[in-house]
Amino acid sequence: MDFFEQRYYVINKRFMSYFGMWPLENSIKSKFLFYLVIFIFFTMYLPEMIKVTELGVTDIDAFIECIPPIVVIKSSMVKAFTVGFHINHFQVLLKHIEEDWRNLKDVKEMAILSEYAESGRKFTIWYTFYISFTTLLYLSLPLSPIVLNILSPLNESRKMELLFCTEYFVNEEDYFNEILFYDYAIAVLVVAVLIATDTMYMVYSEHACGIFAIVCYRLNNIGKCENKEEKYDNDFFNKPKDDNYDEIQDEKNYQELSLCVKKHKHAIEFVELLQTCYTESLITLLLLNVVGISITGVQTIINIHNWSDVFRFGFLTLGEAFHLFFLTLPGQRIIDHSAKIFEDSYDSCWYVLSSRCKRTLSLILLRSMTPCQLMAGGLYSMTLENYVSLVQTAMSYFTVLSSVR
């Protein structure tokens, strides 16, 4: 059985395979699906851009309303292109995950990695639920006149609206149902690609955190004194070396430390490879999300007297803020887990180790003084502190747009 068919990864694999983006699947079918997705994105993106160009000089409110769908479609396109452009790197990441699992022998280490794999699975489920719920609220706008005509009928039917502002060079009233159906299909596809790629991003980062946690577990058990009273003996450092030296135990400690160094290096290389895959897309997505939050905030103000639009655009704004948070959280978790390596090295029983073991431990201490981190474009660190700054920036742009509208 395929390793990634197990419960921790099967949801992510199925999501990615539906769109031909599973890195380890190199069949003609997967390539066809991937290029089909890209083609459909362009067939929606171009009509949006044409409409935006037309409205930019005639109707500022309609122009603003066109921006959020473009931001979402562009974000999904960026994620799809990222998978296609870095397909070889993603294959290496998945092979590392499989090898890490197969090389584990210790039951506790398996439990640690299982915990983080399960965390990635839970993130996948909750993210899928939240984004799907937000999308359903956004898609409810074209259907609201039908519902209102039933619940609160007027002398004339309420005007039906399309989901997106697009230009297909046809009469929208004559082809309303066809265009609306196509808009819904595109929206579902765009959101599905976002879910598939974002959740896989979290799975990669959670695995990196799991490797760091295994290194911490090993460091916590190196050089531990069998006798707790000896550990806190005030005369321990004054005793002759021969009284405390155990050659067999020293060799065991040295081998354990050497393995810690190798695993720590492996975790760092895994994060660096993850950084290589996402550095360009992250900086693009950050900019798109800041623009999206600002614009949807303005839309909420524009439609302040229409409760259904306020409800819809308000949830869309929250969804974009949540998406930005979801992009930032893996970077913060990687920083926290890699920084803990230094803390656990410092708190270990280093004082009972031999000189060569201390020299080996110092290699881990020196490298872990600088935590690993994910950098967007090599400039912006993905931390929760910077996330707050970005949201504040988006709110500032929102205030400016509201005042000049």
TrEMBL record:
InterPro entries: 7tm6_olfct_rcpt (IPR004117). It comes from the Eukaryota. It holds the Pfam family 7tm_6. GO terms for biological process: signal transduction. Keywords: Cell membrane, Membrane, Olfaction, Receptor, Sensory transduction, Transducer, Transmembrane, Transmembrane helix. The chain crosses the membrane at residues 28-46, 129-151, 179-197, 282-304. It is a multi-pass membrane protein. The keyword Membrane applies. GO terms for molecular function: odorant binding; olfactory receptor activity. It is found in: Cell membrane. One of its GO terms (cellular component) is plasma membrane. Belongs to the insect chemoreceptor superfamily. Heteromeric odorant receptor channel (TC 1.A.69) family. This is Odorant receptor. The lineage of its organism: Eukaryota, Metazoa, Ecdysozoa, Arthropoda, Hexapoda.
